[in-house]
């Protein structure tokens, strides 16, 4: 049996060598794949990190742009509010002018807008009560120059100041509020240039 045992021992030895060779080859392949995977993982991690850095920069830029836009919008809103307040203050100052200065302003406005046909002029209650005779006379004189009839209505108009010219069915609203409204874009431009 010793020959048989030698053959078996030889076969076992050969098998073990083959097994060891296969295991060594498998370990080498595993090490190679592991190293290759690590390299790919490093490359992928670098790509992900680079992409994340780019996205971060983009987000920061967008955030800055958004903040800048909000800042500009806030400044614009504040400017618009300030201009609106200036216009409201001017309107109030016009309505509250002293009698002489106020009716002088209305005289100039009436000269510019007196129609070429008969008219009825309507004023608010406050202006009717404080209207100087000199203004009433200037209305009549201006009407005579135009060869028309112009009268001042005793019925107060619901306006803040200024007047309304009634031409039958048609009215020309020359109240302070209407004049400001009509010229608001120009007034805002002028205020913007003067204030800012």
Task: Please supply descriptive tags for the structure shown above.
single chain, 196 residues, alpha+beta, hypothetical protein PF0899 fold, 2 domains, 4-stranded mixed sheet, 6 helices, 4 strands, 75% helix, rod-shaped
Note down, in words, how this protein is organized.
β3 and β4 form a beta hairpin. The model has no long low-confidence stretch (mean pLDDT 88). The relative contact order is 0.08. The chain folds into 2 domains: 1-96; 98-195, ATP synthase, E subunit, C-terminal (hypothetical protein PF0899 fold, 2-Layer Sandwich). Helices cover 75% and strands 10% of the residues. It contains 6 helices and 4 strands. It has helices spanning 2-95, 99-113, 125-130, 133-145, 176-182, 184-195; strands at residues 119-122, 150-152, 162-167, 170-175. It is an alpha+beta fold. The longest helix has 94 residues, at 2-95. A 4-stranded mixed sheet has the order 2-1-3-4. It starts with a helix and ends with a helix. α1 packs across α6 (184-195) and α2 (99-113) packs parallel to α4 (133-145). It is rod-shaped, with a radius of gyration of 47 Å.
Summarize the structure.
The chain is α+β, with helices and mostly antiparallel strands and 196 residues long. The protein has helices spanning 2-95, 99-113, 125-130, 133-145, 176-182, 184-195; strands at 119-122, 150-152, 162-167, 170-175.
């Amino acid at each position: 049996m010793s020959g048989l045992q030698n053959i078996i021992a030889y076969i076992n030895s050969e098998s073990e060598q083959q097994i060891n060779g296969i295991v060594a080859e498998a370990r080498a392949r595993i090490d190679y794949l592991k190293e290759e995977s690590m390299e790919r993982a490093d490359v992928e991690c670098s790509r992900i990190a680079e992409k994340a850095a780019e996205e971060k920069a983009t987000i920061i830029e967008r955030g800055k742009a958004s903040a800048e836009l909000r800042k500009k919008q806030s400044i614009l809103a504040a400017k618009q509010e300030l201009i609106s307040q200036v216009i409201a203050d001017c309107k109030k100052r016009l309505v509250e002018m002293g009698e002489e200065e106020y009716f002088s302003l209305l005289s100039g406005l009436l000269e510019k807008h007196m129609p070429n046909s008969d008219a009825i002029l309507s004023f608010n209650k406050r202006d009717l009560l404080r209207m100087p005779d000199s203004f009433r006379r200037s209305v009549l004189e201006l009407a005579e120059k135009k060869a028309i009839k112009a009268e001042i209505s005793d019925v107060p108009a619901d306006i803040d100041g200024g007047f309304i010219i009634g031409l039958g069915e048609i009215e020309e609203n020359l109240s302070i509020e209407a004049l400001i409204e009509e010229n608001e874009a120009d007034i805002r431009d002028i205020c913007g240039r003067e204030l800012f």
